[in-house]
Write a structure and sequence with these properties.
A hairpin with a 2-residue loop joins β1 and β2. The protein is built from 38 helices and two strands. The chain starts with about 30 loop residues before the first strand and ends in an 8-residue tail after the last helix. It has a two-stranded antiparallel ribbon. The chain is mainly α. The longest helix is centred in the C-terminal third of the chain and has 29 residues.
Length: about 725
């Protein structure tokens, strides 16, 4: 083998891409290292900065229609680069002129257009198809029509309509037929069809009918296809009477219905529950065209199911049998599921047996609907029989079916069987949920079988349940019925000894006991949670505030409120209302008004009483009773009668901005309207006098401090300022 020639050395050794010979050019994935082997790394980005663009004056003689360079365009425009390439050279010249002038019509654009020998209607249509700006499209369209001997074609009119609709200027597009008439180009059915398609696709049924009325005005008769589209748009949106009137015009025009025409009418009438009229149309369809097939009948049943018209579904089903149309599995599934959800499980079960006799393919959804309906009807035996039939048929029951069976068995107090079904779900790997075990837990609690209860909780922990959270859901479910509140408390006392406890459970029980009126037990639980290792939250303190107000211990209620403020939390709206009313009853009106303002500042949607409280105080600035009475009238019109907080707001506002006489006028008005009793009026009158004395004393003290007389009073032994 002859010797190989030596490899020639590169002429420029410094261009080698090795760091030994110097710095190579950086790339995206291979950065350049400067300063050290692994320091000061520099890389280039995919998006190179574009060089500054200096716009040059436009010259038609130097313009190249094949260039791909485009100037800066508006980002909101819908014109893409690919759509521009598809334009003809002259159309691209016009669009380039538009972009050069920022899509603003003016002398520069007119000057560029005048350089062209002639703009044809096809060219106008081509430009309008790519023009997103409706104002510029309108200007260009009208400019083209002013050319000598120019007449728009149907293509340019259609393109103009598309351009207006793209920008949601559909009202302007609807005036296109009048424009065509003014330019001696009567519109045809195609122009109206375009407008109707725009409105029907955008779900504007009344606009569809408006365009149809305009067709009649211009003596343009729609074809069957367009009639179908108009009727369908009206029917889908519930304008059945308008659709029927359009159908009457259809018949008067001597047109013959198609299957689509009948089905649009039938489905629309089914949707609004006009079954008798639908049956008349159905009989007319049989006489004039054909008998509906199973797909048509299934569509009718679906529409009626969506409208929850089960009687109509059964009437349509009878019509299907009358026509000897054999229902398929989809038709059976639709009707059986609807009957089960509508509480007619017996009829649904008859259809199910009919499917079994015909050897139809029965979906698992039918089994699930029947099982759920039988359990809701209290017929657990039928539900269990369906579960056995499901398994024998080769299906595997899903978790929803097992949940229904467990709930049904617990409803008839067969908790041991329900627990066995739960074990089956675990063995089949269905990952049971809280809904699965909750009926069993409730029944164990009612039967006081706490050992089995705790055994189930242990098994839930092994299965990955968050037992504390699920226990919160359990107690919330139990106290949902007021008669089971004490049962929940007994279960909690037992679970507390076994370590199952949390603040959320305390809150649930405290709230339930508060609704039941057991205020002392609520306070006992509140003291218990404070002494435990748990930290009470804002809800705990809020419930305690309501209970302390109910028993008249306002001082402790205020301490709970201050504790919530120290935690930088917000009390509940109910706690705000209770504490404000409690402060008003004890005469602490200033504290109550401050609490009202604090509530409205911290809560997203405060109570209506608090909002009108500030309105009453603001009305008191007028110094008269008339404005306050107007606010109270508006308040009562909104269904919000005055309460202690409103009465205190009247006292506070009148003592600050008005007089005692004006406040008494307001209270007399409320008494005359039977909104305030004589006894309460006497109480509030005393509160008014006491509050006015307090405000007067505060003003005196403030004046003494302002003029520096407090030292003289102290020297004389006065204790006014210290008190």
């Amino acid at each position: 083998m002859p010797p190989q020639p030596p490899i020639p050395k590169p002429q420029n050794q410094t261009n080698k891409f090795y760091f030994f010979y110097g710095h190579r050019k950086p790339s995206q994935h291979r950065p350049t290292v400067r300063g050290g082997l692994f320091s000061n790394r520099q890389s280039i980005s995919l998006h190179k900065p574009s060089p500054p663009h200096n716009p040059q004056p436009f010259n038609l003689h130097h313009w190249d229609p094949t260039t791909t360079e485009t100037r800066n365009t508006n980002t909101n425009s819908g014109t893409t680069h690919t759509s521009l390439i598809r334009l003809s050279p002259i159309a691209r010249y016009i669009t380039d002129s538009f972009r050069k002038n920022q899509n603003r019509w003016g002398p520069p654009i007119v000057s560029d257009l005048n350089k062209l020998r002639r703009v044809t209607p096809d060219l106008v249509a081509e430009v309008l198809k790519s023009q997103p700006d409706p104002n510029l499209a309108s200007k260009f369209f009208h400019w083209a029509s002013k050319q000598k001997g120019f007449h728009h074609t149907f293509a340019s009119y259609n393109a103009f309509a598309y351009a207006l609709n793209r920008s949601n200027c559909f009202r302007s597009a609807d005036q296109l037929p009048e424009l065509m008439i003014s330019q001696n180009k009567p519109p045809t059915e195609k122009q109206f069809e375009i407008l109707i398609r725009f409105h029907s696709d955008a779900n504007r049924p009344l606009r569809v009918f408006y365009v149809y009325q305009k067709m009649k005005k211009f003596n343009v008769k729609p074809r069957v296809f367009l009639y179908n589209r108009i009727i369908d748009a009206l029917m889908k949106n519930g304008y059945v009477d308008l659709a029927v009137s359009v159908y009457d015009d259809f018949r008067n025009d001597g047109l013959v219905e198609e299957s689509v025409t009948f089905m649009v009418l039938i489905k629309g009438l089914c949707k609004v529950g006009r079954i008798d009229e639908m049956l008349k149309v159905l009989s007319k369809m049989r006489e004039n065209l054909c008998t509906p097939d199973v797909f048509a009948y299934t569509a009718m049943v679906r529409v009626l199911v969506e409208a929850r018209n089960l009687d109509g579904c059964l009437r349509v089903w009878e019509e299907m049998r009358r026509d000897n149309v054999e229902p398929d599995a989809m038709a059976y599934t639709t009707l059986v599921t609807a009957l089960c959800k509508g509480g007619r499980v017996e009829k649904g079960y008859e259809l199910f047996r009919e499917m079994k006799e015909k050897r139809c393919l029965i979906d698992r959804a039918i089994y699930g609907s029947l099982v759920e309906a039988f359990v809701a009807d209290g017929k657990v035996g039928f539900a269990c029989g369906l579960l056995k039939d499901l398994v024998d048929s080769g299906y595997r029951a899903d978790l929803g079916i097992y949940n229904s069976i467990i709930e049904g068995l617990c409803g008839v107090k067969q908790v041991d069987k329900a627990y066995k079904v739960f074990q089956v779900t675990v063995q089949e790997g269905l990952e049971p949920e809280f809904v699965t075990v909750n009926p069993v837990l409730v029944l164990y609690a009612e039967m006081r079988r706490m050992d089995e209860f705790c055994k189930l909780l242990t098994q839930m922990e092994k299965l990955g349940f968050c037992v504390i959270d699920d226990l919160s859901k359990f107690f919330a479910f139990v106290v949902g019925k007021e008669e089971r509140t004490m049962l929940a408390v007994e279960v909690f006392e037992d679970l507390k000894k076994r370590g199952y406890c949390s603040v959320s459970i305390y809150n649930i029980l405290m709230g339930a006991l508060h609704k039941k009126g057991e205020f002392k037990k609520v306070i006992s639980l509140f003291d218990e949670v404070k002494e435990s290792d748990f930290e009470p939250d804002s809800l705990t303190y809020s419930i305690a505030i309501e209970c302390f107000v109910e028993i008249g211990d306002i001082e402790k209620a205020c301490l709970c409120y201050n504790k919530i403020m120290e935690m930088s939390l917000v009390p509940s709206v109910a706690a705000y209302c209770a504490l404000a009313k409690g402060l008003c009853k004890t005469g602490d009106i200033d504290a109550a008004m401050m609490l009202v303002r604090n509530c409205l500042a911290n809560v997203t949607s405060g109570p209506m009483e608090f909002k009108y409280t500030l309105s009453v105080v603001h009305a008191c600035k007028s110094g008269g009773a008339e404005k306050v009475i107007e606010v109270l009238n508006e308040m009562m019109q909104q269904g919000c009668p005055p309460d202690e907080v409103i009465y205190s707001a009247i006292i506070s506002g009148m003592c600050k901005y008005g007089t005692i006489e004006e406040a008494r006028k307001v209270f007399l008005n409320l008494r005359d309207r039977k909104l305030l009793t004589e006894a309460n009026m006497i109480v509030y009158d005393e509160m008014l006098i006491e509050h006015m004395k307090k405000k007067t004393a505060d003003l005196v003290v403030s004046g003494l401090k302002f003029f520096g007389l407090e030292s003289k009073l102290k020297a004389k032994g006065s204790t006014l300022l210290s008190s």
